[in-house]
Amino acid sequence: MVGVPTIINLCLVWLPALASVVLSFTRWDGIGLEAIEWAGTRNYEEIVTTYPPFWPALAHNVIWLAFFILIATPAGLLLAVLLDKGIKGTRIYQSAIYLPVVLSLAIVGFIWQLLYSPDQGMINQLFNIEVDWFGNPRINLWAVLVAASWRHVGYVMILYLAGLKGVDPTLKEAAAIDGASEWQAFRKVVFPAMRPVNVVVLVITVIESLRAFDLVYVINGGRNGLELLSALVTQNIIGEASRIGYGSAIAAIMLVISTVFIVVYVTQILREEKA
Predict the structure, then answer these.
(1) How far is CA 214 from the centre of its chain?
(2) pTM for the model
(3) In this structure, what is the dihedral angle of CA atoms 175, 181, 185, 191, given to the nearest 10 degrees?
(4) In the beta sheet, which residues pair with residue 37?
(5) Cβ contact 101:151 at 8 Å
């Protein structure tokens, strides 16, 4: 039963990924296989030394990751804890907060373009200001991060809500009997008991940060302060230059970064299965 899904996964995921790694060592404009030229590590050397958008894009991805880990993910955890208390209307709150998750990031981008519109946007009208949220390269990354967090918070909330439901209630009761406050019980008992969920949330947060693309591409094509590694891949592969090898090299760098966190995640799972 697992043979067919495995073959499909190999054909649609791993073979293209390996092909991209191979192409990252070549020069190719995408027209005719005979035009492929072996370039060795020159693509990688040029990317880190003479390709201006690379380091800003990498920095933006790091900022994206830090924002998600320090702001969006704790916000999702906080909402999960509050909703786990069984407050009145919790189902409505859950649905409302989770709703952005079912929307594609492209749709999220269109929604926030309306909210951030310099002329008739709700935010400028509400605060009676005139700010070009997406056009100003000094602030547009932060404006996009707020929009992306709007979706990420709901995702994290659902994961932690499921994790909280799985925590043994006797652990909380034992902590309360020992005199622990609600915060102490959560910090020393509940949160460590959700370790598998914490690992999943961390991996998802990292992957979401690295594959962030739709939102910035909808807004301005990933330029003018919104450079991301994923946007650079697209610009090189399907842009006017059609530098398949160059774009593949950037994709390979993203693959290596993602693999580090995936290996940590798989190692964690295997250790828990052996325990």
Answers:
(1) 11
(2) 0.86
(3) 180
(4) 27
(5) yes
